[in-house]
Every structure is written in structure tokens, then in C-alpha cells.
Amino acid sequence: MRRNLLGLIAALALGSVSSAALAADIVPPEPVASWTGFYLGAGGGLAWSDINIDHKRCLLDYDGGCDPYVDVFENDSDHSSDPSGVGIVQGGFDYQIGPYYVTGIGADWTFGDILGDNNHRSHEDEWGFHDHFDHNDKSMVDVYWRSGFTPLPNLLVFGLGGWTWADIDSNFKVRDDEGDWHHNSNDNFNANGFTLGAGLEYKFADYPLSLRAEYRFTRLEDFHNNDHFTWDECECDFRDRNDVNIDVQRVLFTLNWRFGGFFGATTAAAY
User: Distance (Å, rounded) from C-alpha 9 to C-alpha 63?
Assistant: First the structure.
């Protein structure tokens, strides 16, 4: 009996020693910094625009309506600008759910020659009018939600969607064939519309920095640059209606400082 008891105690002692030695040999998984946290960033890129102008002109009768005996002039045209350099500042908050899913919100301001060189000219043969259009946008604000996955712990593949506001100056000029008369209409419009995009973001392991590259497409709502003018050659009154639609595309690169965690607290996720 005593011999059996001593054997059991020895076996338990050897088992505990072996378990402790095995546990000492197991290396715990190295924690990987989470994407959860606030960020601020700045950068630049390229922007270009596609502008559609539906231009109509009619001769007014004595009642102020379009003269039914004179055809309405109409010209529908498209113009694409060359890419121009822009800058951007941005900020937001990301939240990581599990090892692979990241979601968040953000806002940014794009500035520079966003619409590029988009001067457009047309000619009306019946009255001999030359029309000139020019649109400028130096400022664009986005508010967006983005969501993505991490194929690697430090690499985020994401898509985004949001709303955009743009401050657009619209300039419309008319002159006749003689070149000694002109009409100039300048107006400012607060256009807005939706934005869609996709991109990649890489988070450096040893620094609280990330590098982000993305593409965005923005469709702004139509706005109308309408005007009325009198031509001295015949004392005729004309009405112009210009329906303008603008699409903006951007390729952006930003360097972001990532604060990490809620209000700066460091978080880590084990993989």
C-alpha cells in the first residue's frame, strides 16, 4: 500500500514538472497593433473633370416667352479636362472588428485646380453668337464611411462612400461675329453629390504612420446658369438656359499619423 502511494506521488510530481517545462517552451503569439484609433493626414494627387453643358437659347416675344416662330437654338456638349495637381488634408476614426474587418468614418478637404482647364466654346450660325463657358472649383469637402479587410495585419484594402460639397464659379460669355459686343454672366454655385472610391493603406510596424493610396469618383448634382440679355443690333431680347453636370475623378496619396485606440490608448490584437 505504502509502495503504491509513493509511486503515485512520484508520477504526479514528474507530470507537473514536465507540464511546466512544456509551457516554458511555448512562445505566445506576438501581438499586432490594431487599426482601431484616430488619424490625421495630408497629401496630394491628381484631379480631372468631365463637364456636360446642355445649352439652349431662344428669342423672346413681347410677352417675355420664347417666340414660337423662331427655332430654339440647342447645343449639348461634353468636355474633359487634363489632370491637375491638388492637395488634401483629412482625418477620421477606424475601428477593427476581429482580425480581418475594419470600418470607420472620415472627412477631408481637397484644394487646388480641381476641375482643370475646361474652357469650352461654341458658335450659333443663325444669329452669329459665340459662346464661351468656364468653370472653376478650388475647394471640395468630403464626408465618408469606409470599410475593408486586412489580408495582412498591416495592409488594409477598403472601399468608401460618402457625400461631397463643392464651391463652383461658373462664367458664361456671349459675343457676336463683329467681336465688339459681349455679354458676361458670372455666378457661384454650391454643388453637392455622392462620392465612391477604393484604395489601399499600409501601416508601418515601427512608427505610428500609414501610407494611403486611393481613387475617388464624384458625381455632382446638376446646376443651372441661366441668364437674359439684349442685343443692340436688333434690340432683341434673348434667354439662355445652361444645364451643367460635372463629374470629378481624383487619385490621392496621403501620409497619416495614427494615434491608436480610443483617445490615444494603445490597442493590440492577437493573431
Answer: 114
Contact 188, 169 (CB under 8 A): yes
> Which has the closest alpha carbon to 72: 84, 89, 55?
55
3-state SS assignment for residue 235: coil
3-state secondary structure at position 244: strand
- Mention every residue, 6+ apart, whose C-beta is less than 8 A from residue 45: 85, 86, 88, 250, 251, 252, 253
pLDDT in tens, the chain (271 residues): 445 544 544 444 444 444 444 344 555 544 557 899 999 999 999 999 999 888 888 889 888 788 888 888 888 888 888 899 999 999 999 999 999 999 999 999 999 989 887 777 888 887 888 888 888 888 999 999 999 999 999 999 999 999 999 988 888 888 888 776 678 878 888 889 999 999 999 999 888 999 999 999 999 988 887 888 888 777 888 888 888 889 999 999 999 999 975 544 344 443 3
> Closest by alpha carbon to 41, among 87, 83, 84, 72?
87
Contact predicate 142/123, CB 8 Å: no
Enumerate residues 6+ apart whose C-beta is below 8 A from 54: 74, 76, 242, 243
Confidence (pTM): 0.79
Distance CA 201, CA 213 (A): 6
Q: What does the alpha-carbon distance between residue 26 and residue 73 come to, in Å, rounded to a whole number? A: 82
Question: Phi/psi at 263 (nearest 5 deg)?
Answer: 55, 40
